[in-house]
Fold this sequence. Notes:
By secondary structure, this protein is of the alpha+beta class. It contains 3 helices and 10 strands.
Amino acid sequence: MKKIIAILSVFCCVNAFADDTPQMPAPRVSLFSTTVDWSGVTGLPLSQYSGKITGSSRSLVKNGLVLYYLDAFPCYGAADSVRIWVSPSGEVVGNLRLICVANPKTVQFAYHNATADAPQSETTGLLTCPATGDYDFNIDLSKCTVGPNWSKYGK
């Protein structure tokens, strides 16, 4: 009985010192993409576009460059074709297949440097590249612009 009273006393003391300030729940993030209805929103039909990575920038590629396409109007990436690896010699592994309501003029990638067999890791930042051509368009890596690292975007 004494043990029960002692335990209850401890709980009462702890409860008396507890902060009664109501805690705000963390905001919930809801991802909603309009990309699946760009055709309905614009009235333009969806078409498939294929990107070919060309050119080389040794300072950008280094020991290998992993690119992840970032969806942006007028295109979104086909799920199986948005990751590309570029070797130091310019070999490209992977396909860039986009579904668009208009021909892309620029494409953006999240990127990081890694060898072909490296485990997936966080990307470094943003890479913006001009796209030339029509349904089969080209991206020349030497003409891409490196954006700020993710840490520059803040929280």
